[in-house]
């Protein structure tokens, strides 16, 4: 099974609901066009804790929904890209450098894990932070910009 993009979500500013989109443009050293962190309007921007792009495994969302009944399939996870068929933790590299991977026209690089925060709990339902623990996804940097679409293949470089 090849790795693919299952969903794409952006939010124009911090604390607003994530909107599902079919396509987005990744901007080199910036993030996703129209997303709160690229536009510097995100909740965590003032704290300096900004991920250019966040990714989460669709398989983890399936497990969360089955185990807890918590709604996580419509952007409640607050991550940008939902993947299917790839273990995101396998993108960690060695010596503080993450692996690069292509999605559509863009090249991203693993940055760090993205554990859930209390802000997610404030925006969603009780139990969300606990449900995402150890399944919160990753942060990635945009190395080469370009279009990313739902159903694009994810290829480790």
Shape: globular
Q: What is the CATH homology-level superfamily? A: PK beta-barrel domain-like
Oligomer: single chain
Largest sheet data: 8 strands, mixed
Radius of gyration over all CA atoms, rounded:
14 Å
Order of helices and strands: EEEEEHEEEHHEEE
Task: Reconstruct the topology from this structure.
Elements (H helix, E strand, L loop, with lengths): L3 E7 L8 E3 L1 E5 L3 E2 L20 E5 H11 L12 E4 L15 E4 L2 E8 L4 H6 L4 H5 L5 E7 L1 E4 L4 E3 L1
Parallel strand pairs: 5-6
Antiparallel strand pairs: 1-2, 1-6, 3-4, 3-10, 5-9, 7-8, 7-11, 8-9
Describe this structure as you would to a colleague.
The structure is a single chain. Strands 2-1-6-5-9-8-7-11 form an eight-stranded mixed beta sheet. A three-stranded antiparallel beta sheet has the order 4-3-10, with no helix packed on it. Strand 3 (23-27) and strand 4 form a beta hairpin. It has one domain (4-156): M1 Pyruvate Kinase, Domain 3 (Beta Barrel). The chain is of the alpha+beta class and 157 residues long. It has helices at 58-68, 118-123, 128-132, and strands at residues 4-10, 19-21, 23-27, 31-32, 53-57, 81-84, 100-103, 106-113, 138-144, 146-149, 154-156.
Question: Summed up, what is this model?
Answer:
The protein has 157 residues and is α+β, with helices and mostly antiparallel strands. The protein has a single domain, classed as Beta Barrel (M1 Pyruvate Kinase, Domain 3), CATH 2.40.33. It is built from 3 helices and 11 strands; from the N terminus they run βββββαβββααβββ.
């Amino acid at each position: 099974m090849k790795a693919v993009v299952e969903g794409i979500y952006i939010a124009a500013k911090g604390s607003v609901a994530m909107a599902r989109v079919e396509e987005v443009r990744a901007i080199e050293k910036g993030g996703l066009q129209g997303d709160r962190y690229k536009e510097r309007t995100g909740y965590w921007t003032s704290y300096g804790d900004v991920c250019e792009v966040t990714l989460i495994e669709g398989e983890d969302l399936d497990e969360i929904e089955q185990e807890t009944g918590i709604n996580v399939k419509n952007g409640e996870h607050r991550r940008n890209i939902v993947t299917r068929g790839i273990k995101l933790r396998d993108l960690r590299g060695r010596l503080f450098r993450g692996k690069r991977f292509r999605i559509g026209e863009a090249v991203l690089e693993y940055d760090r894990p993205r554990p859930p925060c209390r802000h997610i709990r404030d925006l969603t339902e009780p139990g969300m932070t606990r449900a995402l623990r150890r399944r919160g996804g990753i942060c990635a940097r945009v190395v080469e910009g370009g279009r990313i679409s739902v159903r694009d293949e994810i290829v480790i470089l």
